[in-house]
From TrEMBL:
Polar residues bias spans: 250-260, 284-297
Compositional bias ranges of the Basic and acidic residues kind: 263-274
Superkingdom: Eukaryota
Keyword line: Coiled coil
Region span, Disordered: 246-297
Protein name (record): Uncharacterized protein
Keyword Coiled coil belongs to the record: yes
Coiled-coil stretches noted in the UniProt entry, renumbered to this chain: 159-195
Amino acid sequence: MGKGYYSQPKKHEFTSFEIQIALGLMCRGVHLLGPEHNKKGEVIEYEAKHKREVYTTFATRMNEILHGEDYAQDISKKDITALIDRLTAEHKNLFGSHGYLDRNGYRRLTRSINRAFLSNRKQNYDGSKQEWEMGRKKKVENELRREQGLPTIEEEEAHTRAREEVIKARKEREAAENEEQLRIFRAEREKEKQKEMQNARPASASILKGWLPSIERSGVQATNTLSTAAGNGNNETISASVLHSLLPSIETTNTPQSAPSEMPREDVRRDEYGRPLSKPRVRANNSRFFDTSRPSH
């Protein structure tokens, strides 16, 4: 036996077509352990029963697609295993625990997956959910927004904050204007009430009585200032007839007005036995009797 008989087989160099076949099988989940890795709930087409059979199943399926029944052209399981490990490590954004395949839910090779795979970007993602939520999700979404001609997430958030600030400032301005209008309305209403109270205040009887003799002597209208007399701030002209209508109970003499009288007291008449009569008589201040009772028996 020659020395070359024991030499190691040459490492297989995969073509782009073979890599595409491997990518399609990985999209179907053939390289996974079982249905527990499928978080979307779909049934995996090629399910491995044991961990040791995972790569064997993948290599068998890949050789059947590439060479059919020509077993002499089969690629070794070792090379296919190395290919799977390399693709999984270099493209964690696709095959990670929270990669594009898990988020997409379609177990087939699509144009978006193929484009992401062929871009061959060194992003150094670990494929975890935390990494996706902490920054990679926003970056991917911003790229999609730029392709569609939409603003990025940061620009939209800034626009939303600016709009909220404008709305808040407008509400505060409207509230201040309403408060100022309410204050002005209350002040005007208070002035109107004070003016109505001043206009409704009557002139005192003593002052009007002092004007009456001069008006009667002249026989014409006399002009007097009610602002000095009654304190209402208005200048008016009052005639004698008007004063007489205002003062029906004031006498035209110069005698001072007497103090207000007390309440009339009740004088009860009694009969010879000391019992009060049925109808009492009322005594006025001037000792005159009104509504006299019946004559005594």
